Each structure stands twice: as structure tokens, then as C-alpha cells.
Amino acid sequence: MSENNSGGPMRWDEHARGGAGGWVRASDGRTGPPDEPAPDPDPDSGRRTVPKKYVLLAVGGGLAVAAVVLVVAHTVRPSAPDAAHSAGPSSSSSPSVALSGSTETDPQPSGPPTASAEEQATAVDELLERSESDRQQVIDAVNAVEACASDGTVAAAGQALNEAAVRREGLITDLAALDVGELASGSLAAGSLRTGWQHSADADRAFADWADDAQGCSPGAVPRTSSYRRGVRSSELATGAKEEFLAHWTPIAASYGLPERDTAEL
Predict the structure, then answer these.
(1) Does the keyword Membrane apply (predicted)?
(2) What is d(CA 119, CA 100) in angstroms, rounded to the nearest whole number?
């Protein structure tokens, strides 16, 4: 409805026309509720408008902050192996830990226990017993060469003497394998006995060579060759070394109830 300027401005009166409402002149004497302000077509028109450039800056700054937070979080976050390690040993790592512990605490395997002094002395005496068993065979072989009954007996004597030398060298090897560290003067005794047996082996071989020299001899007329003289000299050296051995060995044998021996038995 258009406004009539001749009659003054028009206003809407909700009480006009029997409560149905209608336009009335502003000068109309009717009374009614004051005019309500027309609704504001833009409810936010009263607010302060922020320029778009500031809005864009704020949004961009927020995105930048978010990106920095993500980068920092990724940097300080522990990797999977580190996280698993910091979380404590897992069941899968327990075997390796136990193995490491056993390696450090388990005793190392040791060698055979050291023999007692009595056991060491008994072992040496057993070698002396073996040496004594060869003594008579050597004496018999030397006498057979001296008698020169036949070429056959002389040759057999030479073979027996060589075999005796091999057994003497076997005694030396077995003596070197014995532990005599628990015996008083054990190392000195063993050293002297080893020297004596070596001289005896040299004497056996020298007399075996003498048997070869005696082939074709006549009974009671066997020549005293250089081999014979070498055998005699080696026998003398063997006797001196065995006497030195007995000086150390006799007190040991008495301490453990072992038989006494002399140079002839060795």
C-alpha cells in the first residue's frame, strides 16, 4: 500500500479494524502500542566487520602453527624400536638377556683336578718298576755279545739292545707327561731321572752297534770297538744322573711308603 503524503505519513496499527490490523495515519488520534521498529534485514549489521585480509592472515597463521606442531610431534615421537626398548624388556628379548647373564656368571669349564702328592709319587714309582724290568734283558744281551757263541746269538743280542733303547725312550716320554708339582723337589727328581734314562738309551744303542761289530767273532775273542767304549761311557753318565735322582727320590718314597731303589735297579 503506498503512502499518501497529503494526509501525513502512514503507520501500521495492529489494533485497527477491530484487531485485524491496518495502516492508519500517523496523526490519527487512536491510541495503541507504539510502532515497533521494522525488522533489521541484516541481524549482524550492528557487528563490526573484520576485513577479509585479516581473516586470511589468521587462517594462514593457524595452519602454520598446526604444521609446526605436527613436525615437532613427529620429531620427538620415538621410533618403534626405541619405543619398544623404553617400554621395558619384552618377552622376546628375555632369552637374549638370560643368555648374556649366563655367559657372564657361569663358571668356565676347568681341566682335570690336580693329582695329590701321593698319586704323583705313585705314578713315578710305576715308571721305575717298568725300567727295572728291562735291566736284566740288557745285561743278558751284553753278555751274549761278549760270549760270541754264534753269529745268531750275537745278532739276537743286538736286536734286544735296540728294543731296550726304544723302551727307555718311551719311559722318558711318559715321565714328561707326569705332573710332579705337588712333590717336594719333584721337578729336580724328574729332571735327573730323565737324563739318566736318556744316557741308558744311548748306551743300549752303542752296545747294539758293538754287536754288529762282533759278527764273525770267535768265542772269548770279541774286539772292544769304539761302539763298545761309547756304550761304557754312556752307562757311566747314566749312573751319575740316577744317583742324583735317588738323592731327591728316596725321601719322597719314604714319605709315601714306596720301595727304595738303587742305581742298578734303574
Answers:
(1) yes
(2) 40
